[in-house]
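Running this now, will post back.
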Amino acid sequence: MGAPSSPRAASHAVANSYGRNWEPAQQVRTGDAEGLTKEFAQALSASPLLDLALPIIARVMLPTYLITLAQPHDAAALGGRWLCAVGGWDGARRLAAVAALDAERGEWEAWTAAPGSCPPAGLSSHTCTRLSDRELRVAGREGGTRTQRRYGSIYTLRLDPGARTYCYREESCRSASRSGHCAALLPTPGPRPGHQLLLFGGCDSAEPEVAGHWGYGKIQEEAPAAPRLTEQLAKLVSSGQGSRQGPRGLRHHSCSVVGPFAVLFGGETLTRARDTICNDLYVYDARRAPSLWFHFPCADRALKRMGHRTCLCNDQLYLVGGFGEDGRTASPQVCTLDLFL
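Update: finished.
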């Protein structure tokens, strides 16, 4: 976002013809959560950890040794108490281990593999999607530093907070080899909707890939309710302003599920050698089959971001962290997405 003279000035600077606006909110310094906004800090304190299953929380709160030894990991919240960080890169190899933050005690623990666990060779820039209070679906590239597979294995990761153990099980389905992608658990259309887990980006393809499908009533997990933002997105995609174009060759972007929509922002494109950091907004509309993409470009270079996260909390989408236009300078700002229609 750069360093605007004031949040309101930045707000006017970033608004574009599509009525999309990432507005920097007032910055505060709050101990370990340095750089969080007042609004976001209040939302965190008022919401259960269960609703904030985001790697960015781990990024804010991980102790130094985990930040150093397990990047880029992914994380998911369990039971309103545990934040489980999975895998990552320790500077020499990819890991598949699980470390968990006990929010009640404020301490990190290294969990152990249960008997019978069949872990991947190692994971980084992968995704972990919560399926239930004790089960995650893990997808992404695995292997050593010199060997990369042409496909990606998909794992179910079962977690037992009481025993402090985890267990990997490899699924029969596979995906393309992806790294730096995102995943979205979306409802399927129809009178008895099920769920499907879709992988976006992380390879050359512009099309999402199914990493799991569950029938009606099998998945109880739902994204936090966001009626206002869902209605705004429905109006945005029906306005005719966006192009029907999916994100080809995108990685290290963000993705949040808002009702029947997957909202992707930013990232690094693989389709060009220069000016690779993006500031585009993509909306995936899963309300009917076939699903549709909507692309909303932005001319403001200050919004270029990669390696960030978006968080849906209290009917508001927050943009947190990541690197700016040069791909190296970290951004300390927290912004909110506002749609003016």
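The chain has five helices and 22 strands. More later if anyone needs it.
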